[in-house]
TrEMBL record:
Taxonomic lineage of the native organism: Bacteria, Pseudomonadati, Bacteroidota, Bacteroidia, Bacteroidales
Pfam family, one: Lipase_GDSL_2
Gene Ontology MF term list: hydrolase activity, acting on ester bonds
UniProt protein name: SGNH/GDSL hydrolase family protein
Alphabetized InterPro entries for the sequence: Ester_Hydrolysis_Enzymes, SGNH_hydro, SGNH_hydro_sf
PANTHER family tied to this protein: SGNH HYDROLASE-TYPE ESTERASE DOMAIN-CONTAINING PROTEIN, THIOESTERASE 1/PROTEASE 1/LYSOPHOSPHOLIPASE L1
Secretion signal span: 1-25
Alphabetical list of SUPFAM superfamilies matching this protein: SGNH hydrolase (SSF52266)
Keyword Hydrolase found: yes
Length: 302
């Protein structure tokens, strides 16, 4: 009798198993965690996870003289540049055919063309329908561009990204005033925003320079301009407090201790100790390009 009951129970257990009826309170465990990928091997899985809208970031080799450098990246903690990155992403994927425009405004470092055009041409190679225009004036301060006609000139270029590169001439004023510098930056940014609302802006810090002295009956000598670091801090603080992205070239390439020495010892500064050799400006453009690509990849991978 007992054997008969056991045999019946076994038949019932087998019947329930074949029909898929639940055997208890626990849900049935799926055979694979991701059925649509069950047949894929490891190589296929890795390929599936790769993004098609990221770009390879080139390695920029610094001269051996460069020391105490930091990671080359720009700061955009609140996503000021997201609209610009999205336009580049759609351009790279072929979804958009609209030309993306970068306008780089600044002083003699921009007026010399090599720095901004190096970065622009490299960006164009990667993204295709992209233009870069530089608007520079020798000896310019921020306040130099706070004129309606100059703001109109910039607006007529219809930028999707506006890069502002100042600070060298402000810091060469031996009566430099941080409060005045901040007010001049704010005047320029306010005028640009009023005329071009929604256009993202990226500020860059100056690369660093020396100031010259000529003592009586002695040749001209040079010493580190101590006001550059102060001006850089004002630029960084202003950008952070007013919703602008910033690329701190000065800090990345050595800061107060090494920025000027790095350029000088590498033979990339001109004899005036303010401007740079073509190779120096080209290196600056390559570094800006690299920082832009890193930020773009951060956006599309987020």
């Amino acid at each position: 009798m007992k054997k008969s009951r056991i045999w019946r129970f076994c038949l019932l257990f087998l019947f329930l198993g074949l029909t898929g009826a639940p055997l208890g309170a626990q849900d049935k465990v799926p055979e694979t965690l991701c059925p649509q990928l069950a047949a894929a091997d490891c190589d296929t899985l890795l390929t599936c996870r790769q993004r098609t809208d990221t770009v390879p970031v080139p390695l920029v080799t610094l001269p051996p003289a460069f020391r105490e450098v930091r990671e080359n990246c720009l700061t955009d903690s609140i996503g000021v540049l997201n609209a610009f990155w999205e336009k580049l992403r759609l351009l790279r994927l072929g979804v958009s055919v609209d030309t993306v425009r970068i306008v780089h405004v600044g002083d003699s470092h921009i007026r010399g063309h090599i720095f901004p055009r190096t970065a622009g041409e490299l960006m164009q190679r990667v993204f295709g329908a992209l233009t870069s225009t530089d608007v520079g004036i020798n000896g310019a301060f921020c306040v130099t561009f706070t004129r309606p006609d100059r703001v109109e000139e910039i607006a007529a270029l219809h930028p999707d990204l506006l890069i502002l590169s100042f600070g060298t001439n402000e810091s060469h004023n031996r009566r430099y005033n941080a409060l005045l510098h901040r007010r001049q930056m704010d005047d320029l940014v306010r005028m640009l925003r009023d005329r071009m609302p929604g256009v993202p802006m990226l500020m860059t810090t100056p690369p660093g320079s020396y100031e010259s002295f000529r003592q009586r009956r002695r040749k001209q000598t040079y010493k580190l301009n101590p006001r550059t670091a102060v001006a850089v801090q004002e630029i960084l603080r202003y950008a952070d407090e007013n919703g602008l992205a910033v690329w701190d070239m000065y800090g990345i390439l050595g800061g107060m201790r090494r920025a000027c020495l790095n350029w000088q010892e590498a033979g990339l500064m001109r004899p005036d100790h303010v401007h740079y050799m073509p190779e120096g400006y080209r290196l600056q453009g390559e570094l800006l390009f690299q920082a832009l690509l890193k930020a773009y990849n951060d956006y599309v991978e987020y």
